[in-house]
Amino acid sequence: MKLKSSRPFSELSEILYNPSAKDGPEIAYWVFSEISKGKWENMTVTSAGFYGDEFTKTYGHYHGTNVVENYLLVSGKGVLQLQKKIVENETVVENRVESVYMVQFEKPGEKISIPYEFGHSFSNVGNEPLVTFDDWRSGHTDHDYEIIQKQKGLCYYLLRDEHAGIKLVPNPNYTQHPKPIWITPNEFNELF
Ligand SMILES: [Fe+2]
Fold first, then answer.
1. Residue 78 C-alpha to ligand 1 middle, in angstroms?
2. How far apart are CA 50 and CA 180, in angstroms?
3. At 10, which CATH number?
4. Separation of 19 CA from ligand 1 center, angstroms?
5. Range of the domain at 119
6. CA of 163 to the centre of ligand 1 (A)
7. Which residues 6+ apart lie within 8 Å of 106 measured at CB?
8. Domain total of the chain
9. In this model, does residue 142 exceed pLDDT 90?
10. Ligand 1 centre from 162 Cα, in Å?
């Protein structure tokens, strides 16, 4: 196993609800690769905490390669935001998405298969590190992150809310905000 990358707070600011948030974990998350010779290739450890009122999260990306990605929850509690891209004239539309799912991971062992059309980012909504495994071996290009960077995040920001627990705030850089569908990993797997 080796440390593949780590994402410091300073690199995450540009895609936060509040880019000038001052407090929060110094390292948002670490990605380790070659974790096994079997199914799982990477492990992501996302710190618990907040940047301003926003839950710590991964940067988020699309995949340029038509391969399904599988995720497994090892420990912690997370919400995986999935947004389905719109392609027009063979070009990805940057400021609109077709649908948005908020997949709630609560029990270790829960798994999801993400079709390639879905951009994704994990928010750590618990009070301990969020640990996930995935089987992505197809690499990334800068382009995988470019749209998320331009749009300053995915379609919604996940903020803490005293009463509801999680408040979803629409990202104003998208011109439409499909109603988010809250769903379990199993329910999502049955749909796609
Ligand atoms: Fe991915």
1. 15
2. 22
3. 2.60.120.10
4. 23
5. 2-191
6. 31
7. 73, 77
8. 1
9. no
10. 31
Q: What percent of the chain has pLDDT over 90?
A: 92
Reply yes or no on whether the pLDDT at 156 is more than 90.
yes
User: Distance from the CA of 140 to the center of ligand 1, in angstroms?
Assistant: 9
CA of 41 to the centre of ligand 1 (A): 12
Encode pLDDT of 12-56 as tens digits.
999 999 999 999 999 999 999 999 999 999 999 999 999 999 999
Does residue 160 register a pLDDT over 90? yes
DSSP state at residue 123:
E
Q: Name the pLDDT band for 58 (thresholds 50, 70, 90).
A: very high
Q: What letter would DSSP give residue 185? A: H
Ligand 1 centroid to residue 153 C-alpha, Å? 15
The tokens for 152 are 């300053």
Burial class (CB in 10 A: 0-12, 13-18, 19+), 158: buried
Question: pLDDT, tens digit, for every residue of 101-130?
Answer: 999 999 999 999 999 999 999 999 999 999
Q: Is the torsion defined by CA of 177, 59, 53, 103 positive or negative?
A: positive
145 C-alpha to center of ligand 1: Å? 10
Instruction: Tell me the residues surrounding ligand 1 (ion) with CB < 5 Å.
Output: 69
Would the pLDDT of 137 be above 90? yes
CA–CA separation, 60 and 40 (whole Å): 20
